[in-house]
Every structure is written in C-alpha cells, then in structure tokens.
Design a protein that fits this description.
Layout (H helix, E strand, L loop, with lengths): L1 H23 L10 H17 L5 H13 L12 H11 L3 H6 L1 H4 L4 E6 L26 E3 L8 E5 L2 E4 L4 E9 L14 H5 L6 H13 L1 E3 L2 E4 L1 E2 L6 E8 L1 E2 L3 H5 L9 H4 L7 E12 L5 E12 L2 E2 L19
C-alpha cells in the first residue's frame, strides 16, 4: 500500500517539474505558433498600448462619442406639459378673424380650416432648425391630415409646394382659379379630367401615370400635377388615391428571399385606403410664407387595388423626384 502511494507522489512531482520546464523555455523557432494566433496577440498588445494612451486618436474618438451620448441613468425623459401643448395649439390655430368670417361655412359637415407652416428643410433626424427660413417654423405645422380618412391623405407644405407624400398614394392637384369654395361642387365642369381619370390596376400603369403627373398633364386649359404651388385667393381641387394591394400580403411576407418587400404593405390592413376628393382655398398668405387653408370634402369611395406581377419587386410606384426631396 505504501509503495503504491509513493509511486503516485513521485508521478505527480514529475508532471509538475515537466510543466515548469516547458513554460520556462522560449518558443521553438522551428515550430512557431500559427499566423492567426500571432496576429491576434499583436492586436491585443497594440490595443493594450492604446488603451493606456489618452492622446491616441482612437482613444479621443471613443471618449468624444461616449460624452456626446452619455446620460445619467436617472435623468427623466422630458415630456410635453399641458402648458406646452396649449402654447403649441395656439401657434397652430388659424387667425380668429378667419374663424369669424367663415363661421357659417365651417358649421357645415366635412369642412375645416388649418394653417400650414412652410418646411424649408427645417426638420432633421436629430434636431429642428429655427434659423433663417425656419425661424417661424412650428413642429407639426408642416402637414395636415384630413379627418376620418385614414393615414394616407396627409397634405404637406415643403419647399413652397403642396403635396401628398404618403406611401403608395397618388395625388392629383389642379388650380381652378378664383372660384368661391362655398358653391363649388363635385359636378363642376372644372372636374371633368378628374372624373374621367381611371386609376391604375398594375404597378407599371401606376408608375406611368405618376411620371405623367410629375411633369404635369394639361387638359381643358388647366394643368393637373402631383404637387402644386399655393396661391392666395385661389381654389384648388385635390384627388388623392390611396391604393390598396391585390396580392396576398401575409403570404408574400413569409417568402424567405422577398418577404421584407411586404413589410410596408402590412399596415394597409389598419388604414382606410380611400379615393378622396377635396376642394380647398388659400385664404391667408403670411409674410413668413405660412398659409391658411379652408377646405371641403366633395366625395370619397373605396380605392382601387394594384396587383404586382410575380416577378415584380414590391415597392412604391412613385418616383423620388415627385416627393420633393
């Protein structure tokens, strides 16, 4: 029994001695470490040197980024107070004189009045400009959504023009001149082109119609386009077609290679997607470029569907140029 214990102790000592000898020896040049191991070791040593060198470019850049994005964990995220909301509503509200002048008109159903603030590249991803042309800009005042019409008919005032920038939606604007809005109806002779306009049912047709409207289509002495320049005391008619889709969106979304194309169309199930006809009039043009608009709905109906062919990519049919970028 003692002999076996002695042999075990001797074996352990020999193993420890061998390990100590191996670790104290220099690497064998004839049997070097793999290249990737040497490269990782070099990078680690370089990183350790830079880490302790505050003056290095990498260190300064990392420190600058950390300071710019730092926020104390307990700093509350500021929300708009009721007083802030009241001030914002007052800034966006139409002039009291306009409300009084058009009181009877506004008492009718499907009518309204709003102000639009000119967006001259005032909105950016991380900030809002308040200098130069943006000194009188009010956040949220650059667009207006017509009530009970879904998300799509959002009238936007950018770079001096009115447009509808919504996804998969075709607007058609026309200036009908100095015509009283109170007596204007959907039976007006000035709406002949809009009444005859047949919306597309395929992607190629919709893109072709959009290209024509970007350039402007002349008919009956008037120009129909996908955007328009507002003019004081002029009346405009807007037909905005929020197309639906004839394909099976959920099924396409499950496609392994092209499923992401269907993502923007999934929201259509929660939107009204209608074909809307509006007449509006610019009743006030302020010195800073902001305008006041009086409007009336002339009609609405279910919008048509566009069906993509099997090989077509699911995307918006509107061109970038038509979106006033």
């Amino acid at each position: 029994m003692i002999g076996r214990r002695t042999e075990l102790v001797i074996s352990i000592l020999l193993l420890l001695l061998t390990a100590a000898i191996c670790t104290s020896q220099e690497p064998n040049p004839s049997n070097p470490l793999p290249v990737w191991v040497q490269e990782n070791e070099r990078k680690r040593e370089e990183f350790n040197r830079n880490l302790g060198r505050p003056g290095s470019p990498d260190f300064r850049r990392a420190e600058s980024e950390a300071r710019a994005t730092a926020r104390r964990p307990r700093d509350p995220i500021r929300s708009m107070s009721s007083a802030d909301r009241t001030r914002l509503a007052a800034l966006l509200a139409p002039d009291i004189r306009d409300l009084e002048q058009y009181r009877e008109f506004l008492a009718q159903p499907k009518t309204g009045i709003f102000r639009l603030f000119l967006d001259s590249d005032c909105l950016h991803e991380r900030f809002v400009r308040v200098d130069g042309e943006c000194k009188n800009f009010v956040l949220g005042g650059e667009s207006y959504t017509f009530p009970d019409a879904g998300w799509s008919p959002v009238l936007t005032f950018r770079h001096g023009r009115l447009s509808i920038l919504s996804f998969f939606t075709q607007p058609i604007f026309v200036n009908v001149g100095n015509v009283p809005i109170e007596s204007f109806t959907s039976e007006s002779d000035k709406l002949a082109f809009l009444r005859k306009f047949i919306p597309a049912t395929t992607f190629a047709e919709a893109r072709g119609q959009n290209l024509d409207l970007v350039k402007g289509v002349e008919s009956g002495g008037m120009v129909y386009a996908d955007s328009v320049e507002p003019q004081l005391n002029s009346t405009f008619v807007l037909r905005t077609i929020a197309y639906r889709i004839g394909n099976h969106v959920e099924k396409h979304h499950l496609n392994r290679t092209r499923g992401s194309e269907a993502v923007p169309f999934l929201a259509f199930g929660f939107d009204k997607r209608i074909d809307l006809l509006i007449v509006f009039r610019v009743i006030r043009d302020e010195n800073d470029g902001n305008i006041t608009i009086l409007w009336k709905e002339l009609g609405r109906k279910k919008s048509p569907k566009i069906t993509f062919a099997a090989e077509e990519k699911w995307t918006d049919f509107r061109q970038q140029g038509s979106k006033l970028h």
